[in-house]
Design goal:
The complex is a heterodimer of chains A (about 170) and B (about 450). Chain A is α+β, with helices and mostly antiparallel strands and about 170 residues long. In chain A, about 30% of the residues lie in helices and about 20% in strands. In chain A, the strands form 4 sheets. In chain A, strands 1-8 form a two-stranded antiparallel sheet. The N and C termini of chain A lie far apart (about 45 Å). In chain A, about 50% of the residues are buried. Chain B folds into 3 domains: about 190 residues, FAD/NAD(P)-binding domain (3-Layer(bba) Sandwich), CATH 3.50.50; about 110 residues, FAD/NAD(P)-binding domain (3-Layer(bba) Sandwich), CATH 3.50.50.60; about 100 residues, Enolase-like, domain 1 (2-Layer Sandwich), CATH 3.30.390. In chain B, about 25% of the residues lie in helices and about 30% in strands. Chain B has a 5-stranded parallel β-sheet. In chain B, helix 1 packs parallel to helix 8. The relative contact order of chain B is 0.13. The chains are: A alpha+beta (about 170), B alpha/beta (about 450).
Chain lengths: ~170, ~450
């Protein structure tokens, strides 16, 4: 199955993926309605895109009380709007935090791989998001660990009362 | 001879069990479903009440889907007694069903306090589809509705009652609302929010009687003025449906909440009898303590694990996580795990002016519970709600982030990412295999 392959070291934080995604998913250029979300790291000097891995368990899908989340032709877990009642159970069942609720439609929404032609991958100017035949892995974890280490050290030093200067 | 599986109860646990048997089995088996009602999802009844879905939307099985699953459905029947020696279930009409293995998933029923007038016309519970129909018939634009009880169930139907154009007063015997879902600080934020959105809340109110008075129902209290209502909804707790098992020899807990004691395969004290959902007292994933978790996700996971084991696989269940989410007038409220725990390190952030609250509870480096509250449109407040589940569920080591989260309980995402929680979660499945799309009645080959 083809999935979204994320390469955070190539991400510039331009947010074009969020605009493309929100437009594809909801018809609005509105990052808050994107289901791929770019996290700033290390004091806004590094960025990493983050979205649904189409995990094996499909926690959202198994949790839905009315079977409104199904596997689509692209192999993605997809919300069937006509069936979704908006109970939000999937948003707490998904342990990745990649299941969202749209206050305007009162439905859940998530990455459905745009049915097989993901807009985010198309929109990314640096190939930080590619659509490949691959197994899901933790794309962001190692990068995020590295790019938050300094901030954590600085904070720890401040807490210890040694101040910023010494920490550097 | 094919194996004979008997499923008692047509709720979430029972239906998930049936689907999973059909997904997993290597040779066809006989499945009999005994259910008091035609299967539907209790979770979505509030949306039927609120007129955002049709009644047809609530059903989780149709005659056609049960036929496609090759299920012998005995609907409208209740279990009366179980003989574990002869592997036979007797129904309320005297019929018996023999089985090789059996799932008890008879769920819960609402309980009303034993007070005068609670069975009068116009005094309802909101639990079954029939009760939902009765409330729908009674609550019309301009109706005055009094809801007795301010717990999770009451809150799930709050929006729907208002959507029907009724005015709503909630009375609660405890000093605060949502006593079993959130802590006092969160409850206060929610109560203020409700006040601003036209819902009257009266806490510490001890109901003493309900009576007919001039075409209305008059609710009297130990202290304070009486209330008058067109419709009274009693949401004062639930009790498991287990009385029929008396004399069966199945071990039921004597602890508060009761429940059939189950092992890590959800088997009861009788090896061929499983229990799932509200009637099962199984391990809490965080603490390992045996508890009844009468919530939809537990019923779903229990049902699938039992179905898998009935189909001949060997699936152990590591325990369930308590979690709830409810939205009232566009305010999201959710809690996970051990959200009230005197032995935990507790970090909170309160922004009353924005109705935001966050609480994180740690044991050493492990997040063991969380509470989250905020307006649904304030997406940064509620956006990471699933990550809290992931952190609690995976038990990932957050030691390096604890001090950051102590000062910034809202800033969960970088901690989630940098501790490689995704890597921990990716191999985890309930059944040890990828889940299948729920559109099974059409796709199962028999």
């Amino acid at each position: 199955m083809k999935i979204l392959n994320l390469h955070p070291e190539k991400c510039t934080g331009c947010l074009r993926c969020e605009l493309a995604c929100s437009y594809m998913q909801t018809g609005a250029y509105q990052p808050s309605k994107s289901v791929i979300r770019v996290s700033p790291l290390e004091g806004y000097t590094s960025y990493a895109p983050y979205t649904c891995t189409q995990c094996m368990e499909g926690w959202c899908m198994t949790a839905c009380p009315v079977g409104a989340i199904q596997i689509n032709a692209a192999g993605a877990k997809d919300v069937v709007d006509d069936k979704c009642v908006g109970c939000k159970l999937c948003t707490i069942a998904c342990p990745y935090g990649t299941m969202f609720y749209d206050v305007d439609t009162t439905k859940a929404f998530k990455c459905n791989l745009c049915g097989g032609a993901p807009a985010c991958a198309d929109a990314c100017p640096t190939q930080a998001i590619t659509f490949d035949e691959a197994a899901a892995v933790d794309w962001i974890g190692p990068f995020a660990a590295e790019r938050t280490a300094h901030v954590l050290e600085t904070e720890a030093a401040m807490v210890a009362g040694r101040g910023l200067a010494e920490a550097r | 001879m094919p194996a004979r599986h008997l499923i008692v109860g047509g709720g979430t646990a029972g239906l998930n069990c049936i689907r999973t048997i059909r997904e997993e089995e290597s040779s066809p088996s006989e499945i009999t479903l005994v259910a008091a009602e035609r299967p539907y999802s209790r979770m979505v009844l509030p949306y039927y009440l609120g007129q955002s879905i049709a009644e047809s939307h609530v059903y989780t099985a149709t005659p056609a889907s049960l036929q496609a699953w090759n299920v012998k459905a005995m609907l409208g029947r209740r279990a009366a007694s179980l003989d574990t020696a002869t592997h036979a279930l007797t129904l309320d009409d005297g019929a018996t069903v023999e089985f090789d293995d059996c799932l008890i998933a008879t769920g819960s029923r609402p309980v009303k306090p034993p007070l005068p007038g609670v069975d009068l016309p116009g005094v309802h519970c909101f639990w079954t589809l029939d009760e939902a129909r009765a409330v729908i018939a009674g609550v019309t634009p301009g109706s005055q509705v009094v809801m007795v009880g301010a717990g999770f169930i009451a809150f799930t139907i709050l929006n729907a009652i208002l959507a029907r154009g009724a005015t709503l007063t909630i009375v609660e015997v405890a000093p605060r609302i949502l006593p079993r879902m959130v802590d006092a600080t969160c409850a206060e934020i929610v109560e203020r929010w409700l006040g601003r959105h036209g819902v009257t809340v009266r806490t510490g109110a001890v109901l003493t009687s309900v009576e007919e008075f001039d075409g209305k129902r008059k609710l009297s209290f130990k202290e304070g003025d009486p209330l008058f209502a067109d419709v009274v909804i009693m949401a004062t707790g639930i009790r498991t449906n287990l009385e029929w098992l008396e004399g069966s020899g199945i071990s039921v807990s004597a602890e508060p909440g009761g429940g059939i004691l189950v092992d890590d395969h959800l088997r009861s004290s009788a090896r061929v009898v499983y229990a799932a959902g509200d009637v099962a007292r199984g391990p809490n994933r965080i603490t390992g303590t045996l508890e009844v978790h009468a919530i939809e996700p537990t019923a779903q996971e229990h049902g699938r694990v039992v179905g898998s084991n009935m189909a001949g696989r060997d699936v152990a269940y590591p325990g369930s996580l308590v979690m709830n989410i409810v939205e009232v007038r566009h305010l999201d409220i959710a809690s996970f795990g051990q959200w009230e725990d005197a032995s935990a390190d507790v970090y909170t952030a309160v922004r009353r002016e924005r109705s935001q609250y966050r609480k994180l509870l740690f044991h050493d480096g492990r997040l063991t519970g969380a509470v989250i509250c905020g307006p649904a449109h304030d997406i940064w407040t509620t956006n990471d709600v699933g990550m809290l589940k992931g952190l609690v569920y995976s038990g990932v080591d957050l030691s390096a982030w604890k001090s950051h989260l102590a000062r910034n309980p809202f800033d969960v995402k970088p901690a989630f990412l940098a501790t490689r929680t995704t890597e921990r979660l990716l191999p985890l499945t309930v059944l040890g295999r990828p889940a299948r799309s729920p559109e099974l009645p059409q796709s199962v080959a028999l």
